[in-house]
Amino acid sequence: MSQAALGEAGEGGVAVRRRLSDREGFLAGVCLLPSVVYIVALVALPFFLSIAFSFSDVTAGDPGFDWAGFRNFQRIFHDPVFWRSLQNTLLFSAISMVLIVIFGKVLALILVADFRGKWLVRFLVLLPWTTPVSLSTIAWLWMLDSIYSPIDWLLRHAGVIQGNMYWLGRPRLAMASVIAVHVWRLVPLAAVIIMAGLVAIPGEVQEQAMVDGAGFWRRFFEITLPLTLPVIAVAALFGAIFTFTDMTVVYILTRGGPTNSTQVLASWSFFKGIEGGDVAQGAAIALLLFPLLLAAAITILRWVRRMEVL
Amino acid sequence: MAVVEIRGLRKSFDGKSFALDGIDLATDEGEYLVLLGPSGCGKTTLLRTIAGLEQPTEGEVLIGGSVVNGLPPRARRIAMVFQSYALYPHKSVLDNIVFPLKAQRMDKAERARKARWAAELLDIEHLLGRRPRQLSGGERQRVALARALVRDPSVFLLDEPLSNLDAKLRASARDELKGFQQRVGTTTIYVTHDQVEAMGLGERIAVMHQGRVRQLGRPETVYDEPADVFVATFLGSPPMNLVRRDSHLVGFRPEHLWPVDEVPTEHRVVMSLTIDKMEYLSGDRHIYGPVSGVGEETNVIARLPATVTTSLRPGEKHEFAVHAGRMRFFDAGSGLRTNPVRIGG
Fold first, then answer.
1. How far is A118 from chain B (nearest CA, A)?
2. What ipTM was predicted for this assembly?
3. Residue A70 covered by a domain
4. B115-129 pLDDT, tens digit each
5. Which domain holds residue A49?
6. Residue B236, by phi and psi: left (phi above 0), alpha (psi -120 to 50) or beta?
7. Checking DSSP bridges between strand B284-292 and strand B298-304, what pairing results, if any?
């Protein structure tokens, strides 16, 4: 046996050479690489590209990069549609967030309850979340059709209305419709998040409250609610971010109309930048979402950490 | 009047087997009753049924003379301390203590007065502003007790309240619990699987096994006069020796099996023990080995106090004896206690 082979096998015949998979530094690098590539290529690159575009005069017809300074932003700020979009974005997000949390909480209580046929209810509750946004929004487009809306049909047969509601044709109703679809698609996510929080409350704490003489409402407001507040905040944050950044619902339902009354920053950016070809201005509008979202996320997450429930 | 009374209680979770299988039990006023048994014997289920957290499948639960079946826990005037203490983690110690009073809609000044009284009694006034997670195990226990106390309950239900404490703290917490109960004088039902706790705390002990109360009696009674083989072997460390003799089991405790010279009486049962091994535990000698002469050859344990100095060595065969009055007899089939049987001379 050669000297090298002896050394490798060791004296007791145990292999002493380290394998590649034993080197933690190497493993860490390999495991992290895909996510690093993902973040750099699909998050960081587009982000910095949009910053660059927003200070340029790039259009679909003339991709040449020329420095434009703050001209894009000046034009946006002078456009009344921007202010309308900003207002809508904030309004839709705020109302959706509140409704998502309330309905999510109620659905979460149903999800954790033990009753006959609960699997069917759970399946139905989660269904909106599993459907692609664009497909379910198209379904809603039919539901809210100006003439053939089944909702109108029901209301007519119930004797509530005479003609049609024109859900997407009147500014107020169109705004309500957009909010309703957002709430409908995001409530299941909030329900699942809040359910995780409910399940994490020790059973003995609830039973202790019962023994201590608390009825349902006192237990809900003094025990369940405070103990799930951190996860409710997380659910609210998710709801707000998904509504804030979404353009699909507005794009499919109303295309921002009637007369920009449902326009939000995301959809307006798409119309300007992609459909209108003014890439630079589209990028500038999209970029304005960033500081708003950052501020909202930081506020909510700091608030969650301060609560120190457990 | 019995504070808590259980009549023919049966409880099934799956409709097939019974977690509680026919329990009849009554506490005396101000009594400290311990439910003792191995895990899975139904003692916690019994306590939860008394609390109203479980509904009986059959039978009745009476508190203060009236049937409370179907009444929610809050209507039963009971206070319960869980194994985990179940303090409300988001509330301060003071808010934890006043929670039951708020549920009773007591006015604020009265609440504060009662909370202060309970905190003083349990010596936790300096902790009132803290959160539960800032407390040690022993402090948490006292907060849980204070919260139970402020309600003026007719009965305390305690579910293994010492099992989360380390061994050192457990002994002092046990003394505190006993002293506390004597001060307030409230009827207490205490669940444990630890016989030392049960013997030390209980005025009476209900030994439970497989959903039934096997024996109910004072600690010395259940120890000295066990009603069946289960009670005989569950209590005592090491447990009672059992030797089969025809259709009977002959039982004697290790501390009563001594070298024959140390049992100077005519009323003794002599047997020869072949010593397999010996252990020295806290000054006692534990002798292990098979005995013959009382029945079938069986491995037994003898526990000799330091005062017995007979020279013994592993491998030797020695004559041992038990005072005849210390022998207990059980039916080999049913395991129940029987009348004495004549052994040898």
1. 19
2. 0.82
3. no
4. 998 898 888 899 999
5. 1-54
6. left
7. antiparallel
